[in-house]
Amino acid sequence: MDFSNLIADRMLEVKASAVREIFKVASQPGVITLAGGNPAPESFPAEEIKEAAMAILTQQPSVALQYNLSEGYPRLREQLANRMEKKFGIDMSKNELIVVSGSQQGADLTTKALVNEGDGVICEEPSFIGCLNTFRTYKAKLYGVRMNDDGMDMEMLEETLKNNKNIKLIYTIPTFQNPSGKTTSLAVRKKMLELAVKYNVIIYEDNPYGELRFSGEEVPTIKSMDTTGHVIYAGSFSKVFSPGLRLAYLVFDKGIMEKIVVGKQATDVHTNVFSQMIASYYLEHYDLDAQIEKIRLLYKHRGEWMLTCMDKYFPKAASWTRPEGGIFIWVTLPEGIDTQKLLSEAIEKKVAFVPGVAFMTDINQPTSALRLNFSTMPDDKIEEGIRILGELLAEKLG
Ligand SMILES: Cc1ncc(COP(=O)(O)O)c(C=O)c1O
To answer: What are the φ and ψ backbone dihedral angles of 332, each rounded to 5 degrees?
Structure first.
């Protein structure tokens, strides 16, 4: 049956995520996938989660299996609020923290609460496809702002804010950005906040990778500098614990709380309480920072190894970022190279990456960039994948 006449207008602009489509090919046996954004499965604390699950189901089955509060499991909210204050310097007397079902849902609820059809959302160019698609489903107008090496171009941001009165949100991933791996400098963070206050728009600070630094200096979150409530901060358990548990949290000014919580009630009532209790038990009985340290060391090794292989195998005409954390490297090729076509050729040779166009606010805009991921493949596969891609690039670039 063809149901296309029944599809809602809000979905017309939204295409299946290119990354998910590539996954289908990339998950075939024998393909070296540098395409995904998954954490390394060997980093999951499975034994500890098993123990937590047993203890919770033995001691508190009627809480774990019952409905709970939309704002989140109270003990977990408390633990996370303490962590925000201690580790991130966020003043929790002025802010609220709620638990959400992944930071993807955090972006969805924020957009639902703030963005009318036709309202503007400013995004880094390139940006995370999942949230770009969230904004599209609410029929927001997307404004891409170029990413420099130190973050969004502030002149272009101000021009965009000045010229478009419909803007409600600035969407930023300031640390180890997906897809570029770049980190926004302190000066740019301060300027972005100043502009958000001046033009009275909200910054959605999406920070799933922030704790995965393996070199360089920490940069404070934008939220920690926010004294006026213009920043909504999203943290996630996905990249430091387990994405399958679907746990993340939003930290925001008390004034925004009510509408986001009502929106959540209308979406899923509350986040899986059993998952929340597992995270809470883990925070109580184990050491999340030690778990994060193990992941950092693994990604430091894999990230640096991938860069070493790229230095060896990639032609000089290509350039790429050298991230200080996170899981992605962004490769820029000379103009005119179609990385979507390059992907088909790479897949024939059993290597997958994500072409840059997937991360653009305008998916028809040609881009000669691509994203590589280094979190999941072992050393030998990273080397083989990069060698094959290097050969393919050398054929194209001469
Ligand atoms: C920048 C960014 N935001 C949000 C998400 C979604 O994460 P979660 O699993 O918390 O929904 C991802 C996942 O890859 C991401 O890269």
So the answer is: -110, 125
Q: Are residues 272 and 393 in the same domain?
A: no
Cα–Cα distance for residue pair 336/355, rounded to 1 Å: 13
Residue 76 CA to ligand 1 center (angstroms) comes to 20
Handedness of CA 116, 122, 128, 132 (dihedral sign): positive
Per-residue pLDDT of 139-183, as tens digits, reads: 999 999 999 999 999 999 999 999 999 999 999 999 999 999 999
Q: CB of 124 closer than 6 A to ligand 1?
A: no
Residue 237 CA to ligand 1 centre (angstroms): 10
| Tens digits of residue pLDDT in 296-344 | 999 999 999 999 999 999 999 999 999 999 999 999 999 999 998 899 8
Which of ligand 1's atoms lies nearest the C-alpha of 177?
A: 1
Domain that holds residue 296: 4-44+290-397
C-alpha 173/C-alpha 115 separation (Å) is 19
Tell me the C-alpha distance between 101 and 268, whole Å: 9
What is the sign of the dihedral through the CA atoms of 154, 229, 126 and 330? positive
Q: Would you mind telling me the total number of residues written for the chain in this entry?
A: 398
Query: Does 205 share its domain with 137?
Result: yes
Indicate if 381 and 348 belong to the same structural domain: yes
Do 14 and 112 lie in one domain? The reply is no
| Closest of 340, 331, 338 to residue 390, by C-alpha | 331
